[in-house]
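Q: I'm writing a short explainer about PTB domain engulfment adapter for a general audience and would like to include a description of its predicted shape. Could you first generate the structure from this sequence?
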Amino acid sequence: MLMVKKEDNDSSHTKQKKTMASLFTPSPTTTSSSGDTIYVAAVPLKAAAGPPQLIMSMAYSLNISNLQHFMVLIKPSSPIRQEVLVFDFQPRNPESIEAAISLLSGNLIPGVVLQRRLKNVPRQRCWMVGPSKGNDAMEMAMEFNKSWETDLRVGFHDCRHYTNELVQHLTGEMQIVERLPRS
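A: Of course. Here's the predicted structure. Afterward I'll give you a sentence or two in plain language.
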């Protein structure tokens, strides 16, 4: 368990980031320091009220572990402050009954690769992977997304696989999701 002494918000957050950085150390394949900075973030899976929520509860009770959604974040290296770019892969309608059923059944459902922006890198459940190997990680990610197969199958071709493969494309780091600290 990560324990951080509570001081003021900024120094506490800085210490927590340093502690997390020491828990997760990228492999030596990350060589460039001039590229954009790549992060991986995770959020708990949610389901709409009603049957989808019931199915998610069943999944949790069956000990289907790691029910979280992973995303890749790109923080541009430009000295001009820019927003963080977020790339992820999810069902077209993530809160539908079909998406919830596919979690248990392993059926294919239509997926979509999304791109959006955040003002800052999240303070929780977000880990720095390292610098990108190219000068324009956003362009590299958009090129990668053009060839990503969008049929989603939980456990075989989902947000974890997308995150692993996009991070590998951007940084050379392999199987990043499996190497993240569990919390």
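A: For your explainer, you could say: The chain has one domain: 37-179.
Q: Perfect, that's easy to follow.
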